[in-house]
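Render this sequence as a predicted structure.
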Amino acid sequence: MTASSKNNEALAQPFERVRDYVGSKGGGEATFGDVVALAEITADSMQTFFATIDRTIYRELRDIADYIVNMRDEIAHLRAGELRSDRLPKAGEDLGAIVLATEEATNSIMEAAEAMMAAAGEDEATLRAVVNDKVMSIFEACSFQDLTGQRIARVISTLEHVEQRIGRFASAVKTDSDQPVEETERERRARELLLHGPQDKGVAIGQNDVDALFP
């Protein structure tokens, strides 16, 4: 039984005495005593009725107040100011630094490889010196992965932190997470034009599959 049904039954109960009294008279001619008795029963029923309404309204208002207090606490736990001014900007800076470090390392490795290829026509001593020097440059450039790994870990931590807070807030407001979200025209076009890359290892199409497309 729903809360609304229970409230309706509670509001109807005070008038059952009036209904029972009228029904007991069987439709006969009413006397002055019947009128007085009915008036007394009606007055008592009205008092009970309004008392029931007061209790019902109080319970509903109390539930609303509890819900508002709970929402206030959950909004406070979101700490949106911290996310906006600290965590998200730092995550953006880390992502920018990752892109820059990757680009610099790639350029260094390509320049070293080009230098070794250009020294292929030199004498053996010169070639050995160039190769040794550029190989060390490549090793140094590859060290970028340590710093980028740390930055990526911080970004992942921030995303998990945001996910936890939003999930807790969504649970508190009892949102229907299974309800489908209507896709906008822009989102649909972006999805249809997406090239789906780069793909994860084991999911991407193999070279043999690509070769099979060109008989």
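Summary. The CA atoms of residues 48 and 54 lie 10 Å apart. Residues 32-78 form the longest helix (47 residues).
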